């Protein structure tokens, strides 16, 4: 795909994420803790009709730009904070900078379940989205011949996914965090096993982020 096609795909992906953000229909609670709500619904995305989309929501007592920096998913020095606390990630690489707000990146994950789940790699088109009251990244996997699959990893596929950091009206310095996950990890794992594991993994990511923000002194309470 050329840069125009990549931009069009990024815009379609971002519009899909906006719909997930505001959609209130047919979500089912997957996991609920004191701090995190994880919901799911059947996906309507082509290629993932038999899968689910997951939406996690929680709030943080810190400004949105701090949260954004800790979630920053682009390879290079900017991703150092993300790798500091997200222990599922082994590597983040910037493969191509298409525009200041648009890039192609590769994320590699560690193995899991005592090695029973092989490490994964994802090559994603990522769009940096920012507005007056929100910041975030929206992503979708693409075929990228310049980065062929590494045989030491299983090449997974992310359908439209990403995160939002939103100001909460009337509560200065407090941020609503929304994370959308819609992934096909490939390999030979039963879909039922993957579906049962994702809610806990998503809630765990939110909790690990909270613990690191506390440790670094960014949460007011």
Structure description:
This protein has about 220 residues and is an alpha+beta fold. It has one domain: Alpha-D-Glucose-1,6-Bisphosphate, Chain A, domain 4. The chain contains four helices and twelve strands, in the order αβββααβββββββββα. Strand 4 and strand 5 form a beta hairpin. The model has no long low-confidence stretch (mean pLDDT about 90).
The assigned structural class equals alpha+beta
Count of spatially separate domains = 1
Whole-number radius of gyration?
A: 17 Å
Helix segment tally: 4
Order of helices and strands: HEEEHHEEEEEEEEEH
Low-confidence stretches: none
Using the 3D structure, state the CATH architecture.
2-Layer Sandwich
Q: Would you report the number of β strands? A: 12
How far from one another are the termini? 46 Å
Shape: globular
User: What is the overall pLDDT average?
Assistant: 92
By CATH reckoning, the class would read Alpha Beta
Work out the strand percent.
35-45%
CATH homology superfamily name: START domain
Bin the helical content: 25-40%
CATH topology: Alpha-D-Glucose-1,6-Bisphosphate, Chain A, domain 4
Largest sheet: 10 strands, mixed
Oligomer: single chain
């Amino acid at each position: 795909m050329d840069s125009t096609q990549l931009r069009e795909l990024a815009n379609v992906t971002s519009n899909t994420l906006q719909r997930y953000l505001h959609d209130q229909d047919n979500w089912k609670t997957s996991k609920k803790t004191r701090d995190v709500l994880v919901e799911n619904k059947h996906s309507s995305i082509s290629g993932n009709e038999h899968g689910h989309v997951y939406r996690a929501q929680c709030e943080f007592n810190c400004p949105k730009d701090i949260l954004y920096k800790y979630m920053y998913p682009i390879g290079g020095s900017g991703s150092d904070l993300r790798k500091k606390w997200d222990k599922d990630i082994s590597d983040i690489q910037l493969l191509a900078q298409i525009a200041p707000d648009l890039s192609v990146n590769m994320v590699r994950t560690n193995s899991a379940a005592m090695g029973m789940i092989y490490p994964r790699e994802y090559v994603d088109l990522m769009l940096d989205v920012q507005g007056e009251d929100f910041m975030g990244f929206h992503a979708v996997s693409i075929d990228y011949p310049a980065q062929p699959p590494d045989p030491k990893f299983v090449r997974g596929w992310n359908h439209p996914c990403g995160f939002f950091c939103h100001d909460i009206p009337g509560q200065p310095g407090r941020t609503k965090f929304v994370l959308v996950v819609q992934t096909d990890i490939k390999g030979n794992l039963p879909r039922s096993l993957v579906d049962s594991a994702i809610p806990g993994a998503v809630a765990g990511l939110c909790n690990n982020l909270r613990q690191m923000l506390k440790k670094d002194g960014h949460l007011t309470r």
